Amino acid sequence: MWGGLQPGLPGVHNNEKKKSMYSVVEVCHLPTGEWAQKPTTGDPPLGVKGYAAAVIRNEIFFFGGWCGHYGCYHNSLYSFNVDTFNWKELSPTTSHHGPMMKAYSSMIAIKVNEEDYLVVIGGQGQFSNNTPPQPGAQYSNVGDYQHCNEVHMYRLKTGEWTSPTVTGDRPPPIRTFTLTSITNTTAILFGGDIGRYSNDIYVLEFTDTSVKCKEFSNPGVSVLWPKGRSAHSSVLINCSSGPHLLVVGGNEEDCWLLNINKMEWKELTNIPDSVTDRYGHSLSVWNETQTTHWIIEFGGWRDGSKMSDTSFIEIISSTGDLVVQSVLDINEYQKRRIQDAVGKWMEEGSVDLTVTRVNMLGAPGAGKTCSQLLLLNEAPPTNNTSTPIACPAVRATRVAVCDKTIWNRRIWTQFHSKRNQKSLSCL
What we know:
Layout (H helix, E strand, L loop, with lengths): L15 H6 L2 E6 L4 E6 L12 E5 L2 E8 L6 E9 L4 E6 L10 E2 L2 E7 L2 E12 L12 E4 L2 E11 L4 E3 L2 E4 L9 E4 L4 E5 L10 E6 L3 E7 L16 E7 L2 E7 L6 E5 L4 E4 L5 H4 L5 E6 L4 E7 L2 E2 L2 E2 L3 E7 L6 E7 H19 L8 E5 L8 H6 L17 E7 L10 E7 L5 E5 L1
Parallel strand pairs: 13-17
Antiparallel strand pairs: 1-2, 3-4, 4-5, 5-6, 7-9, 8-9, 9-11, 10-11, 11-12, 14-15, 15-16, 16-17, 18-19, 19-20, 20-21, 22-23, 23-26, 24-25, 26-27, 28-29, 29-30, 30-31
């Protein structure tokens, strides 16, 4: 996680304090729920709020954003490598070409003919001193600002911005909406500010030179359909019954699930207000298994106050339907992960941990038991001879001390001589 409107952000274009504040990223290790701050190298983007982001393999791409002082918007494009934690500027901010200098647009990654592209749609920027209008796009003035329905594509191979041909039901000038990939060449746009709060859906189909738009609006009558909203968040959940769009929060304090194949909405009423009552927040999905999906929510705004909490929504899809299994705050989630690991240990006799040191507590010079060999990932003995300390109780300590710590705790394992009998407690 990077950027956002943080306390103490200098109201300047750039200085050392701003660079220092935004030269770190926050990393949540999902198997444990532990947050850690990591330094980065290279120069981070200046558009720190309202930027758009998309992922291609091990790189996160950041477009545009608001600079932190009045009227300063960007149309720069940066990449961030999650292996090296290094920033790289791909396209600088300029008023001469490319997308409008703007914030509150959305960006996705597409892949056409085995080639990667980024697509940027909509957004808000300054009315004056901006890039030339895109042919075919529309712009609506709102005070000193303008909203747009521009559609630009960035070809990674050549580093060029292009303007695709847009056909069908093109969305109006729009900002603070969500754009979510369905497949390599399709995406779904929902909601946003179009001069009013929209609840329209647009399904977009891309080629390397074109985009076809199809609109789905509330048919009314007795059909379930969410109210119009802005500054919400959404993620895609794939299950055996097809792709689903999960929408959380915005100016409406609720949560909805869309079956994309059927275009049918369902309101999830068992999500607490602590999760739904916010806007401008981040939302991510972790598919732990084919049927267990964790939705991670962080930050945002509530009643004019910035939020800094993390929530975890567990959704199960084992029956084809998506069912909310639990909603946990970060402390509850961390406790749950430990309990799950303990359960796996007791059931299977093993659990995925990072082991960097094993302390043997037994008679000096004694050999290793099978249990200790298991801890060290070493091969079992080739004969059946017991070691001098293979009875009544040998204790070993797993201590994870490397940077890639999976469990930042001490886990004591008590092994008894009786086959398959073991106990485990966490400190």
